[in-house]
Amino acid sequence: MATTTDFSHLPGRLIVVEGIDGSGKSTQLDLLHKWLRSEGYVTVFTEWNSSPIVRDTTKRGKRKQLLTPMSFSLVHAADFASRTYEQILPALQAGVIVLADRYVYTAFARDAARGVNRKWVRDLYSFAPPPSLALYFHVSLDESIRRIAAARAEIKFYEAGMDLGLSDDLQESFRLFQGRILEEYDKLCDEYDITRIDASQTLVSQQVQVRELVEPLLEGMPRREITKVPTHIQAGYASLAAGGAR
Amino acid sequence: MTAVKFYGEPPPGIEQDWLPGRLIVIEGTDGVGRSTIISILKDYLEASGWGVVDSGLRRSPLVGPGIDQAKEGHTLDPITLNLFYATDFWDRFERIMLPALQAGMVVLADRYIFSLMARAIVRGAPREWLEQIYGFALVPDQVVYLDIDAEDLVLRVLERGFDFWESGGDYLHDRSIYDGFMQHQREQLREMSEMAERYGWDVIDARGTIEQVFEDVRRVVMPTVEAMPQV
Questions:
Q1: How far is the C-alpha of B127 from the C-alpha of A182, rounded, in Å?
Q2: Which of chain B's residues have a Cβ under 8 Å away from the Cβ of A124?
């Protein structure tokens, strides 16, 4: 193996969603995922910070608050690399659809908000295949804070950028840090081919836009025959009809 | 004093432009005797009145356990492995080496970014990418390279047994462990010799006895250490 910058030969499609916490991106990707599967498309789902090889290290770092801007950046790149070589590239080589909840832009935005050199982070992730479609769910800071407050009990240390010492107050630090990330995302939308979606619209109207953007990419993607009864159960029926297991 | 200079863009969080300590790197391949030499050198320097800290790969509290765990598995691509080591390196730099340099101590680094780059290069990672990432590393005061050839190296390693990774087991699948070891080490040694020339390292012949090698290392290292005020 070797990293390569030529990904043009890969027959699959890579669809990624981006946005700050509370933007609703994961919900939209989940709806897209269900729709694609109901249409019979073969899909591979991957999310940020989920490599079985690296995840425990990141967790330990967060729990013990061992991470600094550079080690935070590097350990997330390791997680992403592991998923790139085990999940994303094989699926793209096989010619199927990959759905990614957060992609390199999350690192570009967060690491820059932590003061890491922007060019260095881009170089770090140069092994990543470029997406066929990147969707950025834009939401205002106030709206995202409102949604997060409604959805869960507490804000986490690194989510609030508490490692940067912006404020001793968790809420205030969260506001300042997420504000920085929003600014970075805005710049990224100019720098890269990223489609902005207004995440203050209704869930359904956002999903309609998502599907419209995804549909042109589906041509030629392999589909399974859609059956109400799963094939292994059908096979069981057939076996029974032929005289049972023995 | 030591000027704070990085190979590439300076990483965030380091404000000083000089450090009172000394960063001395001992580089060399697997089984060449680095840790033995570092241990003797540390004792010697401490007995002579200097404060010394040593740091070797995989000893970071953040990543050390994770790397060991990952290496037990069967699928670990070279890019992920390299980024694990890069995280380990940075964590140890920030947590161990930098504070010691700020405190005016001698830091003896058991390997540095160079071994990490050589290992990744022989496994197919692009050199340019590696140089960009490891641009975050502080330029050491001195790099001492323990030089050996694969034929002499293998005689030492035979006594303690071969290691899967040191024999390139993860990427040289179709070879016996001996052939794998020889090929992997030859390629790594070639990379390291090129770096020794490019970066102007002090090259020490590591084929002699421990006493001889230590004496040679001591001779080249002392001027760097003695230029620093004694604690």
A1: 34
A2: 132-133
Chain A residue whose CA is closest to B91: A71
Question: Do A124 and B133 make contact, defined as CB atoms within 8 angstroms?
Answer: yes
Type of residue found at B120: A
Q: Is residue A103 part of a domain?
A: yes
Fold for domain B2-226?
Rossmann fold (3.40.50)
Residue A235 inside a domain? The answer is yes
Task: Supply the pLDDT for residue A5.
Answer: 64
Residue whose C-alpha is closest to residue A75's, from A15, A158, A137, A134: A158
Cβ within 8 Å, pair B136-A61 = no
With CB atoms and an 8 Å threshold, state whether A82 touches B77: yes
Residue numbers of the domain that contains A228: 13-241
Q: Do A74 and B90 touch (CB under 8 A)?
A: yes
Q: What is the dihedral of CA A68, B69, B166, B26, to 10 degrees?
A: 30
* Cβ atoms within 10 Å of B8's Cβ, excluding its own: 16
Q: What is the distance of C-alpha A143 from the center of its chain?
A: 21
Q: What is the ipTM of this complex?
A: 0.91
Q: Which of A57-66, A198-207, B222-231 has the highest mean pLDDT?
A: A198-207
Q: Is residue A5 part of a domain?
A: no
Neighbour count for residue B173 (Cβ, 10 Å): 8
Question: Which of A67, A85, A116 is facing B80, going by the closest CB pair?
Answer: A85
| A105 within some domain | yes
CATH code: domain of residue A209: 3.40.50.300
**Pairwise CB contact (< 8 Å): A3 & B79:** yes
> 3-state SS of A114-176?
CCCCHHHHHHHCCCCCCCCEEEEEECCHHHHHHHHHHHCCCCCCCCCCHHHCCCCCHHHHHHH
Per-residue pLDDT of A62-119, as tens digits, reads 999 889 999 999 999 999 999 999 999 999 999 999 999 999 999 999 999 999 999 9
Domain ranges, ordered by start, for chain B: 2-226
Which whole-number Å values give the CA distances from A115 to A69, B80, B99, in the listed order?
7, 23, 21
